[in-house]
Amino acid sequence: MTNDRPWLPYALILPSVAFLALLFVVPLVQTVWLALSENGAPSLANIRTMAGDINFARSVQNTFLLALAVIPVQIAIALAMGTLVSKIGAGRETILWIWTIPLGISDLAAGMVWLAILQNTGYLNSLLFGLGLIERQTAWLTYQTPVALFIGIAIAEIWRGTAIVMVIIVAGLNQVPKEFREAAEVFGAGPWTRFWRITLPLIRPALQSALILRTVLAFEVFAVVYALGGRNFPVLVGEAYAWQNQNQNYGVAAAYAVLIMVISLAATLVYLKIVKVDPERLP
Amino acid sequence: MKRLLSFGILATTVAALASPSLAQTVFLSTQLRPIEEATVVREEILKGLDAPVDYIVEEPPQFAVRMEAERQAGKHTISLVGALHGELSPIADKDALEPLDTLAAKLAEAGMPQSFLDLGKLGKSSQQYIPWLQATYVMAAHKDALKYLPEGADVKALTYDQLIAWGKAMQEATGQPQIGFPAGPKGLMARYFEGYFYPSFTGGVVRTFRNADAVAGWETFKELWSVVTPNSTNYDFMQEPLAAGEVMVAWDHVARLKNAISAAPDDYVVFPAPAGSKGRGYMPVIAGLAIPKGAPDVAGATAVIEHLTKPDTQLLTATHVGFFPTLNIDLPTDLDPGVALLAGAVKATQSAEDAVISLLPVGLGDKGGEFNKVYMDSFQRIVLQNEPIADVLKSQGDVLAKLMADTGAACWAPDAASDGACPVE
C-alpha cells in the first residue's frame, strides 16, 4: 500500500515536524542569534560578558559538580531499586507507585519541601534540637556553609530525580528474558556475575536513555537550587534567569542558554559513543 | 451540523475574548500585586469611575517582556501601566510612552511637588509618567531588641557605629546575629547600596564609587556584616524573618515590612536608616502611571490617572497599602496602626537634619539591572568572598564607568551634576 503512495509516511509525520520546527527550531535560531549579536551585527560581546562575569566560573563548576555527584548516585539507587522490585510478586505495583511519587511534584515544590526541612526554623533543626544535639538554630543553607548547602541540594535533587531513572531502568529490566538468567544460574554464575555479565549489558539501551535524560536534566537544574540556595549557589540556568530577569540583558541570558544547550548536546554525544548499544536492539 | 457547531463555538470564543478588551480600559501594574491589595484596587480605589477598568498585575520581569512584545508587535492591548520609576525607564528609553505634559501641568497646580514631576520626565524633555505612589526604605526592630541599644543611642537617629555596637550586644546576649538585610535573589539590597550606604559614607553614588571614603565605608560595612545573620543572602522580604523571629532588626522597603508590622504594631519600632560620615542617606521610591504609545484607550487611561491622583483616592490608597501619596497632603489620623508606624518613620527619614536624598537613577534606560549588579557584585566580592576592597572597587568601577559611558546618563543627586555621562572618579 505504501508503495502506491510513497509520500504518505512523510505526510503523516509532517504535522509533528512542522510543530517542532515552529516551536523549537525557530526560537532556537533566534536564541543563537541573540547570543551572538549585538545591535543587529554579529558580535561576541555577550559571550565575553558572560565569561567575564564573577559568577560564570562558579556556576559552571557548581553545575558540573552537582551533575557528577547526583547522576552516579541516582543510577546506582535506581538499579538497586529496580533489581529489588523485580524479585517482588504481590504489592509490586504499590511499591513502584510510592517510589514514583516525587515524579508528580514540580521542581519548585520539591525545593520548597526541602527548604521546609533545612531552613533555620525547619524540621531538621527541630529534630536535632529535640535530640539535644544542637543548642540553637543552626544555619545549613548560607554562603558560610557551602558544603552543607551542596549536600542539601544534592540530596534534594537525588530525592526528586531518581524516580524517572528508575522508571526507565525497570522498563529495561522487564525486557531481559528470564531464560538468560536461568541459564547462567545453571552454569553456576553467582548473583554478582549474573548482574554484571547478563543484566547490565542487556539493559544498556535503557541505561543509555536514562543517562542521557538525567544528564540533560542535571545541566538544566534550577528550581531546587533556587529554592534552597538562591544566589549562594550559582548554577548555569540560574545565571541565565538572573541575566534575563534581574539584569534585563537578554543577549547574555541567551549566551547562557546556548552554552547549556552545547553542554547537553556534548554530553548526549558522549553517552551515545561510550554506552554502545547493539544496533539490532534499537527500536 | 457538526461543522456549524464548531463554528458557533469558535465565534463565541472569539467574541468572549475580544469584547472585554474593547469595552474596558486595561490597566497593567507591577505594584499592588498581592491579592488583598489588588482586590482593594479593583473594588474600592477604581470604583467611582464611569468606564470599567480591568486591573491586571504582572511581576516586573514579565511586565518588561510583555511591554516589549506589544511594542515590537505593534498590537497594543494595554492602555495604562503602573510601575516603578526604574521599570518605566527602559520603556521611555525606546520612546514608547505618550507624553503627559498637560496632565503634569494640572497636577502641579493641584499641589504635586515639582521634584516628583521632574523625576517623571526620566531625563527627557516631556513628561513620561505621572507620579502615583511613593515609599522609601526604613528599619524596623522588635521592641525586645531595644534593651541592647548602646548607651546614649537614640533609635530614631542611629549612626553606623551605634548600629554595629547594637548588633554586637544582641549577638552576645542571644548567641546569634540579629540584624537582617534583604540580600536574597528578589531582595532590594542593591537599593541599600545605591540609596543608603554610598550617600551616607561618600555623599555620592557614581562619582564617589571608588574613592577613599568608599573604601572606609566598605570597611565599616564589613564590620556591620559580622553581626548580620548569614541567612540574609536568602531573604527577599524582611517581614518574613522579622515575623518568624529569625531577626530582631531589619532594613527594607516599607511595603516589604508592612505585613509584620501591621500584624503586631505594638511589638515593633520603625525608624530611619543609620547615618554615616556624610549624613543619613535615603532613597525615595516612586511608582508612576504612564500610557504606552498606541494604547487602545488613551481617553480612558487619562481618566484613570486623573482619578488616581485625586486627594481622596490618594488617601484611600495610603490607608490600604504600604505606599504614600505623591500629592502634598496630610495622612488621616485613623490610619492602620502598622501603616501609621511606617508613615512616622518615613516622615522622620525625610525630615532628618542630616538627611542626604539619593534620587532614583535617571537615563540608564534598560541598563538599570546591570547598574544594580555593579553594587551587588562589589558586595559579593568584598563582603561574601572577602576580596581586597581597593581591587574590587577598581575593577567594578571600570564596569560602572563603561555602563555610564554607554548609556550617557548624567549624574543625579547626591552626585554633583555633570556635563554628559556621569564620571567615576
TrEMBL record, chain A:
Domain of life: Bacteria
Record-linked InterPro entries: ABC_transporter_permease (IPR051393), MetI-like (IPR000515), MetI-like_sf (IPR035906)
UniProt name for this protein: Sugar ABC transporter permease
Pfam families according to UniProt: BPD_transp_1
Transmembrane segments: 12-36, 64-84, 96-117, 147-173, 211-229, 249-272
Span of domain ABC transmembrane type-1: 60-271
Keyword field: Cell membrane, Membrane, Transmembrane, Transmembrane helix, Transport
Intracellular or extracellular location(s): Cell membrane
Family: Belongs to the binding-protein-dependent transport system permease family.
Membrane topology qualifier: Multi-pass membrane protein
Gene3D superfamilies from the UniProt entry: MetI-like
CDD domains associated with the record: TM_PBP2
Automatic annotation (TrEMBL), chain B:
Localization, UniProt: Periplasm
Alphabetical UniProt keywords: Cell membrane, Lipoprotein, Membrane, Palmitate, Periplasm, Signal
Pfam families, sorted: SBP_bac_1
Family annotation (InterPro entries): Bact_solute-bd_prot1 (IPR050490), SBP (IPR006059)
SUPFAM superfamilies xrefs: Periplasmic binding protein-like II
Keyword Repeat: no
Superkingdom of origin organism: Bacteria
Major location category of this protein: periplasm
Family: Belongs to the bacterial solute-binding protein 1 family.
Name of the protein in its database record: ABC transporter substrate-binding protein
Organism: Shinella yambaruensis
